[in-house]
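The pair is quoted verbatim as follows:
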Amino acid sequence: DIAASFEASNFVIDEGDLLDDNEITSLNSMGRSILSEYDVGAYYVSVDDLEDYSDAQSYANDFVDAYGLETMTPRGCVVCLVCVPEGQFALVSAGDALTTFPSDVLNHLVNEINPYLGRSDWAGAGETFFDDVKQTLSGKTANATTEVAYNGTYVTDDYGLLSDEQRMQLEAAATTLAEQYNMGVYLLIVDYMQDSSGSDLANPSSSQ
């Protein structure tokens, strides 16, 4: 189970079944290297649902608390939690790692990880996470709210046209636009249309 995985010094928890055995082994090695060199626990976690949590951020915060990750390693922890079915991911830091990974640094990690999640490269996202954590700890990246969430707010698909992975790809693209250009781009897919009074609108293809 998850608790046993932490006790075994595993840094990849793949409850969402996104990775193969070789990928998990490789990513775990990166996590062990970070702990060995910097006394910080870096964890890449996938889940298949958010349970009763409203978003990935809330889940990640409680995840850290539930398993005592803040104090499990000498200098705290950084966690990347991915939930593909919900089209969300979140980054959180805790313990002494808060000073090294404030919100601007986590924002940098979000921008680095987003493209990999957008094209369903789960292993690539994990490698980028661990690599960026290590570079930040080594002082090779500038320290740029200690929580950054990817909450799936730009794409609404009430009609069910998109797969979970397609929705996540579109969310990733919209999030990148928002962060780089300070502009919100929203996609809304509905199963019917109403005017402001609540009456159904005519099919646009049949209107003159």
Q: What stands out?
A: Residues 142-151, 194-208 have pLDDT under 50 and may be disordered. The beta strands are 12-14, 41-46, 77-83, 88-94, 147-150, 155-157, 187-189. Helices lie at 2-7, 21-38, 56-66, 69-72, 97-100, 103-118, 122-137, 164-181. The longest strand covers residues 77-83.
